[in-house]
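>> received
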Amino acid sequence: MIRHRLTPILAFLLLWAVLFVHYMTNFAGIAPDKMFHNWQLNGQARVLGGIVADMHGIDKQGANMGRVYPEGVDPRDVPQSEKWDATYEIFADYPAGTEVVFDPYPTQFGLQQIAYSWLVRTFGLDRLAEIQTVTALLSAAALAALGVLYWRRMDPLFATLFVIFMGAMPFCIAMGRNLYWSPFLMWLPAVLSLFLYRAERPAVRAALLLAIAGAMFLKSASNYEYITTVTMLAVATFLVVPFFEGKRRPDLGMAFAVWLACVAGFAVAFLIHAQMRGEDIADGLRIIYAEDIARRTYGDSSGYSGETAQSLEATPLDVLRMYLTDFYPGKRVMIVPGKLFLALIGLCLLGLVHKALRGHAHFRRDLAVFVVFFSVPASWLVLAKGHSFTQTHINFVLWYFGFMAALLHVSWSSLTGFWAEIRAARS
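>> returned
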């Protein structure tokens, strides 16, 4: 009994340590140096700018996040590739005797900025690496917990593949310590959902559902990126895990309860953000839709130009086609090459058809794994169609939120199924 309980704890601690060091140092050299050191500096600068403003009493103009510049610099005149440089320089060495101005970024509420700013002022963190250590520790802990829980709830193969794709791919390594993205916020609802799956007492279940709502609030109040994917990853527990226990149906009731908890957490964060954006909540909602939601989803293209207009004119199928078949050199790099990616999808579909025709015991399990984990990234690609069309340089990572692991898991199941039949036919 003691050994049974100690094993997952030791596995968690070991995986946590490895992932933390990897996020902080890129010790295996998997991520290119340029990506590791320079990825998404723009978003992270908005968190640092808010920290600088809090430390020095600079008016943040109603926002939490934003960049800072020396007085006299017009942000509109700064080249796009240099917009964040001043923020990092001012954070590292605040210019004595020079006025600093704040360029607000009200598009997100920026709760993570408030939290990191408190840590900086409370514990005297004056170096970026010190703040990133907190992010890396929490992100490594969340992913390690997911890996151990998937191992226990599903199987070792899926858990291993999930951790590899989410923890050891170049893009994910670079994301692991980024203050803006704070990836632990994306994984926490799924971690709580996996704990909820084994909870039996009604009070514990209610507490965990409330915790899932709270985790989704933290994520949505920090940034809105991938919120549908975060929700579906949490819901996936009750749609997939039952099949690994030999059950024939998913737990739709609890899946719906988890979905409702995530929606409730998002709704509270959204209303608080709306209050910040406008004179009242209704005005804030109008502003958020007009300035942010419309151009990232299904707004009227006549009000925009260039790539934004193209993104609104594109259909959801156009966007899915981009992420399934178009692999732009230099703009989006899939870890699995495009043709192999499609070949694996084809192998999965062939295997599913074969298992369905044979009445195979694992058909329902493999179908659930493939369909549910496809819906995890597809939910954002489709619902945030405009964002997905223009942000191909970052959104390809959505495939790693379970679908790449599912793809290889079902592919392996298909191959072993084919091989078993070949051996049976020969004997």
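>> The beta strands are 66-70, 100-104.
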